[in-house]
Amino acid sequence: MTADTASDTDAKTPTEPVHVDGRADLDDVVADHDVVLTDFYADWCGPCQMLEPVVETLAAETDAAVAKVDVDTNQGLATDFGVQGVPTLVLFADGELVDRMVGLQSEEQLEATIAEYAE
């Protein structure tokens, strides 16, 4: 099966970040897409606001789905993933947590990390 055929069989990758509310929502996004970058953020967080255009670009231009989790409204989910500071970015590939990054990340770094698992 070619990469094109594989992506055709999966749910279409959203071109905008998907706002997740709760564990079931996140589990659905992770189950529906091969690679999911999850952005645990807070509205009051300056670095999170700086990261917002980066995650929007990644959603539009990479094969990864981007999920956004507001830690203030999803404290239990943040706790489940050991989020102690925001932004925290968690990468899932094939349903498994494969990487975690804390703090502001460059678009290039995130693209490279996604590319490791998106093939």
Characteristic terms for this protein:
single chain; 119 residues; alpha/beta; Glutaredoxin; 5 helices; 42% helix; disordered N terminus
Structure, explained:
By secondary structure, this protein is an alpha/beta fold. It has a single domain (3-117), classed as Glutaredoxin (3-Layer(aba) Sandwich). Helices cover 42% and strands 24% of the residues. It is built from 5 helices and 5 strands; from the N terminus they run αβαβαβαββα. The chain has helices at residues 3-9, 23-32, 46-61, 75-80, 107-117, and strands at residues 18-20, 35-41, 65-70, 88-93, 96-102. It has a 5-stranded mixed beta sheet with strand order 1-3-2-4-5, with helices on both faces. Helix 3 links the parallel strand 2 (35-41) and strand 3. The longest helix is centred in the middle third of the chain and has 16 residues, at 46-61. The radius of gyration is 13 Å and the shape is globular. It starts with a helix and ends with a helix. Residues 1-10 have low confidence and may be disordered.
